[in-house]
Queue: 2 jobs
Job 1
Amino acid sequence: MGTPESRVIGRLDEKIATEEKSFLERLPNFLPHPVALVFTVNLLAILFAVLLTDSSFEDLFKFWGQGLVSNFGFGMQFVLLLLLSYALAITPIFKRFLSKLADSVRTQTQAIILVAIFSMLLAWFNWGLGVIGAVFLAKEIAKKKAGSDQNFNYPLLIAAALSGLLVWESGASGNALMHITQGNHIVSEKIGILSLQQTAFSSLNVIVTILLVIAIPVALNMVKKARNSGEYLFESEKEEIKNDNEEITLAVRLEKSWILSLAFGALALLYVARHIVGRSIMDMPTYLFLLIALGIVLRKEPMSYQQDVLKGVQVSWVFYIPIVFYGAVQGMVDLSGLNTVIAGWFNSVSNGATFPAITVISSAILNLFIPNAGSQWLVEGNSLMNAAANLGVSNAKTVLAFCYGAGWAKLLQISLFAPLLGINKVKITDLAKYLGVMMLTSMVIFIFAVSFIPA
Amino acid sequence: MQAVIRKMGNTFTAIIQRVMPDAYIFCLLLTIVAMLAAMGITGHSLFEVVDMWGNGFWKILTFSMQSSLALVGGYVLSSAPLFKKGLAKVAGLPKTHGQAIVLATVSSLLLWYFHWGVGAVATGIVCVEITRQAAKKGIKLHYPLLVAGSYVGTVIWHNGISGASQLLIATDKHFLVDKIGVVPVGKTLFSTGNLLIAGALLVIVPVLVYMMIPEEEDIVTPKDEIDDFKTGDEADFNSGRDGSFAYFLNNSPVVPIIITLIGVIYLYLWFFKWDGSFNINTFIIIMLMASIILHWRMSSYIKCLKHAVQTAIPIMLQFQFYGGILGILGASGLVVVIANFFVNISNELTYPVFAFLGAGLVNMFVPSGGGQWIVQGSIVVEAAQQLGVSIPRVVTAFANGDAWTNLLQPFWCLPLLAFAGLKIRDIMGYCAVIWVFSFIIIALGLMFFPFPLL
């Protein structure tokens, strides 16, 4: 018995389906898989620490071990942020809503605008709702339009859905922004707690988000191809086989009890409400708790929550081992004094005016080596904040600049992220042109904003 | 005798099959019980209880990362070709159904005696390999009992050399040092009484498991032959164009050798230069390094990783709920209430048994051993001093209680279940039989075996 598959059909754009592979698709020839990469970076960190600091050989391994062990808790938070957001994004009620929303679309222009704005606005609150949701929305639109006369450019829709990746790291579910909302974070001695009000909801970030929401759909519409022809694309969406023959025992009844779902969701929401209203703080533990609360309360059967969290393996498995071993790199960089050396590099190539822009670019480059922005922050956070303090740039602006770069680099690494987000059949080369337009537009906005808007 | 035990195994399993929900639902139910108890017994308001729950929820993040890492490391390790070859020799020893079940049980007891982390993960590896080897030889196995046998070793762990509470009170500045001083492991883990209890469990538990082997017609064989571990889809992993730099790193043994070298140097320094002890972190490092080097190429390692991470996700989710329960029990004072209750109904002879029961009851809600000692330890030793019971005896009592109810608790079984692909309700009936008999062994041992006075 095979798995029933519902097919999502779109059409391949003739013009861009050239034989030549784009840079984005060739990137995996230069960058090894993140799991192979993390161990290489571990070695590099040891070499750098040997060459550039006066730590002894024995000390280096002490730092390595300390970093590894002391970041387990933070690492678990980053993994849970991926898992729980994914589970929330595939909540059945949310998918039904998206399916309805897909019905309202008439033209391709409408579709691009809807998908892109949906992706970016929701990704501001949670990356899963935004990006995973928008990819699902794009698939639904393509599926519904497949039989009609109108031909929708499927790769273009997917590209629009990916625009949320640009907003992910600087939104409320951004790894680094979330990490620094809690008391014991990695740079807490230097910068204290930075709340979301100071970062994600700051005027700088609000302006950046508004600019993106306007500019990205406009840019995509300018390069869109109206007429499409060519081969069909298939995206498979696996549907579960329901097991109806199960004997209804007390055990099974408990696993399906909606009262249990409701009770737990309500209790958890009560805690979150008391926390937000009482202390007016949304820190990382509370945010994760909110994700669990919503995930449970929006499902009828309690057991289906764990099953959906299990599906989150799709987005998290690649990062699980790297997250752990970048913890070791953090120990090496910060304890050996390598962080001051790196801060010195920043200071030597920039001044107060150019530092934010350089932070965006350097953060994007480093993200190629550390694709999880949470891990990247653990490794880079101390050096960056040192440099910012020396140059008198505000903490919030530096962190946001870091986030813009890290988010932007996700589009660059689309060959890594596409399968994680459930995009298996669209060729990267077909996406590349549209992603290129998005990257160019957003980079201009980022550089302009961090250089000229105060935060 | 065998007929009685077999009947018990069958009956308990039949009942538990019907009433025991999935481990995830079980921890939700435990949370509700803890909340109701905090409101009913210690008189807290709903708001207070919800705060205790939420504040405690993320308290064991580090521990859940450690446990999931140990599982992922162990899972990937057990799919490494070199490792499988070695293990297959041992797992291939049994020639009959009974021998296979006894081998699983004895190795479980020994692994748990050695270290709880090893016990929780390595038992799964052994269990799967025994199943595979038996299938090769055409030996028909009662699979649920084999998996149960692989789990019951947990009852011995706190008598073993990784016993958390005994190791803790042997350290220089432990939190009870004002009351009992430093108690060396010679007086606890290696005391005659403790060794006798461990020895009795090691002999009697495998015999009991052996006796539970059902009649031919009741045998439940593994669902389908457990063949090789699932690997990820091709689409999940782009290892680069042949000849490119990335392809080289993904497919040559260079990266595995580098990282293993780093790990080996670290472990050498840890054990021989810094006099570190074997703990969960060193275990994780050993597992991760061994799993990487035995796969020889990153691409081979990465292909096993997706499924390995998936098996660890229930741990990442459920352990947080246990953190919440721990928060309720600790902050509401329920632990103190339970401990005091057992003090009030006991005398010098029976206190070790009641301390054992008290620890067992609390362990149902707070299954991680070291954390429980921190909340319960001071009451236990104070009561022992009032009643004139020896400290090593009462510490052993606590330790045994902490391990004993693991038999009724899915927490420690999650990694094994992930390996075996069973639900907790499939095996807990058999564990319950061991639970009953091990109570008798341990209670008698605590009252009558010799312990140092202190």
Note: The beta strands of chain A are 5-11, 232-238.
Job 2
Amino acid sequence: MGKTIAEKIFESHLVDRPTADTFVLRLDAVFCHEITTPIAINDLIARGKDRVFDPARIKAVIDHVTPAKDGKTATQGKILREWARRHGIQDFFDIGANGVCHALFPEKGFARPGYTIIMGDSHTCTHGAFGAFAAGVGTTDLEVGILKGVCAFRSPATIKITVNGAMPAGVYAKDVILSIIGRIGVNGATDKVIEFHGPAVGAMSMDERMTLCNMAVEAGATCGICPPDMTTVDYLWPFIKAEFVSPQAALAAYGRFLPDADAGYERIITHDISDLAPQVTFGFKPDQVKPVAEMAGTPLDQVYIGSCTNGRLEDLRVAAQVLRGRRIHPKVRGIVSPATPLIYSQALEEGIIATFMQAGFCVTNPTCGACLGMSNGVLAEGEVCAATTNRNFNGRMGKGAMVHLMSPATAAASALAGSIANSELYKE
Amino acid sequence: MKAFNGPVLFLDRSDINTDEIIPARYLTEISKEALRPHLLEDLSLEEFDPRADIAGKRVIVTRSNFGCGSSREHAPWALEVNGITVVIARSFARIFRQNMFNCGMLAIELPEESIEKLFSRFAGRPAEIAMDFQNSRLTVRSGEEEAVVPFVISDFDRKLVEAGGWVDFADTHYA
Ligand code: SF4
């Protein structure tokens, strides 16, 4: 039987099979941020093993709470910063150059087809958009990754999801992934890799594929992977042009990670989006999903546009298109957080930041901030937020608050209405 | 190897996520001990009183998809500093389960009937678990009531528990 993408990556990176059900893989990159890495660093120091396997393969960023909000977050940043300096980690992104990890690292070309990547962050699955096997891990796995450059995984059993149909106007990758999670459930892909196929995925930009793969973990998946194609190569070309004579040659080389025609999938799902309407979550689980129309009128206190799911340039463009020349509802607090400095400056150049400000939005620096309820827009008890993020768990953005996940277009339209609303870009 | 015996805390809900186990606002802590008072602080479960219900417990028995959400190893650490070293569930989220074994703790998956049996016979009463790790079975007791439940963990997870966790295992196996 043929092999899936993940099986091919596993095969090419295999270091050891300590037991039949375990694959220890060599890592191409270990990504680090200031929330989950400092404890790994401290543990390594305590063990007398303050070393890194390869400073060039370690990438680190302070992104979750930046600028630091108090002594504790300042200490987390300090531990990461000093460690990066001590070990000569060149790709370390501190204030002024930092942004949300899963937006920043792809933008720097750190995610490539066929790569194995770990990070102490569940949304590491985002980097699968580039045809990589990228998995979120805990601090102990991260610690071993930093020290040895290896990580252990169970078998790469894969679910194939073929997304068919053309994306209706006003419907986005966020709506697609919400509808998929709503269909298969928060447990629907636990311990599995999801391969995203089909014309709708082929037509997506890298920004959209990252949104799609970002939320694979919300269905329990280890990683969401899009097969590398010309869109992938075009995005990566500035970073890989020294390695290949032409984009075509790069595509041909990456072809070795494409799945075989007779690859063995654990499950095959066909998902048609021709009639998909914009989606929104209604409860405390990301699989509690409904069409926006069914939730229309739900009053909001805050609208948050940003995060590793939907804080990229295309997201801000769409939201600005909805907001242009208008003011958000006086009862709503609007917050936009461009995910990286590059996205921020491009948005400035395109007049997108001005549009947000004229509409009454607060523009924050690039950071995770309110997404995980740590800074820059934490909610009070009983408040309701429309967010372009990926988690609506109870207490996620503030204790006793409710989060409704949606696309940037829906979030912008909801900010104008003061309650959940479809954007004009969507016509029923 | 850690100790795996003691009183049971029953959490009768599926999809308990890591934000409920330890909310993100405590992720700024850089000591495990600081997490202790905040375990399950945001759990939405009727009649659950975190401080009183957690006190003295060593084992959690729960439903499916326990530990979904964030990758934070703060979740198993928050359990550990409260003396809880075993979680028994219908199923786990991948990262949480791996984190448990990486810390040398136990995340045991049982079939639906076994979980159902544990809840119907023991939930709501003071119950204790005695772990026979070598022979892969555990005994639940409450007064006269007793049930012996066999379980399966993978060979690799067993090695991690015996080694005291993944760092120690990796250290002896990989250069
Ligand atoms: S933006 Fe939110 S989901 Fe993404 S890495 Fe940051 S905290 Fe996690």
Note: Chain B touches chain A at residues 15, 17, 19-20, 23-25, 27-30, 32, 42, 44, 64-65, 68-73, 76, 91-96, 98-99, 102-103, 154-156, 159, 165-167, 170-171, 173-175 (CB under 8 Å).
